[in-house]
Amino acid sequence: xTDFSKLLNPEQCAxxxxxxxxxxxxxxxxxxKTRTLVHRVAYLVEKGVPADRILLxxxxxxxxxxxxxxxxxxxxxxxxxxxxxxxHSICAKFLRHYASLLGYQPGFQILDEDDQxxxxxxxxxxxxxxxxxxxxxxxxxxxxxxxxxxxxxIQFIASRYLTKIAGVVPEEIEMIAKKYEARKxxxxxxxxxxxxxxxxRLLKEKETVREFLQEKFLHVLVDEYQDTNGIQAExxxxxxxxxxxxxxxxxxxxxxxxxxxxxxxxxxxFPKRWEGCSVxxxxxxxxxxxxxxxxxxxxxKDVPAQFQKVLKPVRTASYAKPTLCKGGDGKSQAQExxxxxxxxxxxxxxxxxxxxxxxxxxxxxxxxxxxxxxKIPYRITSGIGVFEQIHxxxxxxxxxxxxxxxxxxxxxxxxxxxxxxxxxxAKKYWDKLGRQFDPKRRExxxxxxxxxxxxxxxxxxxxxxxxxxxxxxxKEQAVGKLVEDFIDFxxxxxxxxxxxxxxxxxxxxxxxxxxxxxxxxxxxxxxxxSDVALMTNLDARKNNLNMDRVTLSxxxxxxxxxxxxxxxxxxxxxxxxxxxxAEEGRLDEERRLFYVVVTRAKDELYMxxxxxxxxxxxxxxxxxxxQFIKAxxxxxxxxxxxxxxxxxxxxxxxxxxxxxxxxxxxxxGRAGYGADRPHYTYGQGxxxxxxxxxxxxxxxxxxxxxxxx
Length: 709
Hints:
Layout: H1 10-16, E1 23-27, H2 33-47, E2 54-58, H3 61-75, E3 83-86, H4 87-98, E4 109-110, H5 113-127, H6 137-150, H7 154-161, H8 170-187, E5 189-190, H9 192-205, H10 207-216, E6 219-222, H11 230-239, E7 246-250, H12 264-268, H13 270-273, E8 278-282, E9 284-285, H14 290-300, E10 312-313, E11 323-326, H15 330-346, E12 354-358, H16 365-373, E13 378-380, H17 390-403, H18 408-415, H19 423-432, H20 442-451, H21 454-467, H22 470-475, H23 479-498, H24 501-519, H25 524-540, E14 550-554, H26 555-558, E15 563-568, H27 579-583, H28 587-598, E16 601-609, E17 612-614, E18 620-622, H29 627-630, E19 638-641, E20 679-681, E21 702-704
Parallel strand pairs: 1-7, 1-8, 2-3, 2-6, 4-5, 6-7, 9-10, 11-16, 11-19, 12-14, 12-15, 13-14, 15-16
Antiparallel strand pairs: 17-18, 20-21
Helix pairs in contact: 1-2, 2-3, 4-9, 5-6, 5-8, 6-7, 7-8, 9-10, 9-11, 14-28, 15-16, 17-18, 17-23, 18-19, 20-21, 21-23, 23-24
């Protein structure tokens, strides 16, 4: 028999070798959650529990395979017959045997996302009063999915979308959902959500099946329990009801997916739902050095409605405190990230040892551009590179036309954004316009308007209006204003019609941040577009998965990962926590998200709190440090002050770093963008270089009256 006390720490061993009955294992970040589950499986098999009577539920098949492979190393091949996999895959196995009891054939088809959208699209064409103006099939599919996972009527879900998307009629959505269900039955098919819904139905409605499966599984183990939704929690509760041997492993501190259905109540109420439940806390952290854990513990200290846990470092070697980089703006932040990457490389870390983790994708654009310009290899795990995104390509197509009216590909992409304009029609327009189109010329705009059909013509009126000032914007080097007008007169409405609200908002933020980058380009629009072309070509050659690269990722995508060096940009109010989360009362989850990002760092943690954000019109506005940053005592971090970047157009002196940020406050210098542009000067304290204020020739930063956000 294996001596588990020699393989595990006391808390891990207590969980792995616990007797029968319900048990909740609260596994804080980096405390060996997977190791504990692996040895629990090994212990049960050694104890004589038949492997095929153990059920291990995970959220990825990869996690299930890893656990079984590691358990095999402990007790040999006896573990191979364990039932393990995701909730969806386990439900699919049950349904292959018993789907006929619910009206399906055992060989039912599982629809993928494309199949689902096609079916819904076909039904919309037949049912909707005005299919062309109806809600997009992708959004209807999302409504149906939310109704399934939340176990709520489709009309209720559709009503939530009424204020977000035009054209949502709950009664029509309900009719489409019913016809979709009927069509699936007719095809003998289930979609991904049906696997969970029907798996639970099987247990609740078919007594014989329920009793058989309850008897079969002597032990039910659930990984990442904090991420379960209502269906998944009820599914496991029913399966374990007879023998009452259920182990839920998770961490309420890391519940960060409520926006996609996770219910933190499941883990918080687990001891109450299961009478006699034992609770084991894993608090010994094997991942991070003590300074990182001090920050993590501070952030979560005394937060109500949680299981209090204190991370205790196993690594006792001396390391530097985490660093808080304050001051500067987005560009100086990106430059500091670049410096830290180079510094870490020189210190012996590989690029793969470093990660830049951000709250929202648009917050990485400046950093992506800075790393790309300096040929630092990186990979993006939270999506695709900024210049590969559809909405960014749309915007760049318009800007390229302004620079080169003979750019056919950009014209085609731009004009095909209009309603009712396909590729063939767009090519006809191009030929009729003499194979060139200059948005800056009124004659060209009028000619284009004369070619369009009624639907596109109504959209063209505001677009054409937005193009009127393009030439003057270019002459004044107000290139960010070009993107603002593109958004205001057309593209924001387009995004909100094409995408569900949160997705449209994310894309809009990307485009607005792009405007800031263009406005900040020292070489103007043409130089910026040249840089983009070079960076896009470089990105195309980054497909080698084995290449040593810095990781860029959203925090949500980074959960479960770890890196020796972690950098967290934009720890600022309105950005992290996000303004939307604050408005919706989700600050508790934002706090948990901050805890997750801090605990990704093994050796070095750098947090950034810029003092200013730049606007697309050249102005700037102040931002406050995140409330989570403010909660960290000064003694737990090393403070680094960043300088502001110089004005790219006037090339006047930059802004002081180091002590210049402090005592004298921000300098109240003269207008940085010329007297012909009305502005407000922000701040107080000494002028020029006196009193620690801004240095250089009147290098004060300005907030322009025209800034409308």
